[in-house]
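Marked as duplicate of an earlier ticket. Keeping the data here for the record.
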Amino acid sequence: MYDIIIIGAGLVGLSIANALQEHNPQLRLLVLDKENGVAAHQSGHNSNVVHSGIYYTPGSLKARLAKQGNCTIYQFCQEHGLYYDRCGKVIVATQRKELPLLENIYQRGLQNGLEISRLSQVDLKEREPYVHGLEAILVPDAGIVNYPEIAEKLAEIIQSRDGNIYYQQNVCSICEHADYVEVQTLHASYKAKQLVNCAGLHSDRIAKLAGYETGMKIVPFRGEYYVLNSNKNYLVNNLIYPVPNPDFPFLGVHFTRMYNGKRDVGPNAVLAFKREGYRKTDFCLQDMVEILTYKGFWKISARYFGEGMAEIRRSFSHQLFTENARRLIPDLQPEDITLGSTGVRAQALTIDGKFVDDFHFVVGHRSLHVCNAPSPAATASIEIGREIVRRYFPML
């Protein structure tokens, strides 16, 4: 009998385990994951950017935990000798119609307590000489880390405190009893006093196994990145972002200097035909049936039909993708970029066709379900763990 079982060995699941051990080092703790190692999906397939919280609604959980998590993730890396670079980023308006949106982001950043500044064209050129922009915001606290490395270190710390992490454990049933919860995998059965579901792309399904309807559906969106050819690395010094669509939960095609020195360009955002659909050809009938029979998907598709079609066209056209990226860096040519990595975002969608904007938790009898934790969940992960322990497990 464990005190607590956590399903999912991504950054959020591992951070909750870490926070529980910080709270009570004597806890009997078990982390289960269906893959062969940590950070197999969202945690290991992202831009590796440390966000500041500038985009998020003031007072929201995202805004608060992103700001706190920004400091915490750097401290964690420094304490354990992991790579980090607080290099800052620029958010750039390339058209006059974007200037009011840029100002809104600036004001939101101030409301969220961030130290940010406006950049003129001259200031922007000093930081990023090849960027075209009318005005920009400098966000000094944004930076770069290696999230898979952070996940590995968290797993090492958890195990050093006698926590268990078992891989290749695909959960197939969950049964909550009066005083314990039983988790059945394809290989074994485990019991605990409490359960935490951090299954990411499958979080709604795990909640359903435990008997809970979350009122939302996970819809997978694939993000496809290109990589700048190394002889063109001089085009990008650090992190360069466009002004995002305020109604769309994706930040648009941006330029990212990675921890390995490469420069990523992207991502776009297109519907994936499989919850773990990293390739265009990946397809799962069950996943697609769930999406296509969900009323919320059709409502959101109608609302963002134009944006969706533009993303699809860019996904299949190297030329169109380059043209989109050239809004920020006009010198970029199609031959300067090659296809790189992909990621899949678990985006929670309500039945009335709305994106779930904030982190969202569903509380069960003996379980807690983390049902929406998209970006900036990696940045905020350690603080998400501590927040969950404070809210839901103070007596453990």
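See parent ticket for discussion. The chain has a mean pLDDT of 95.
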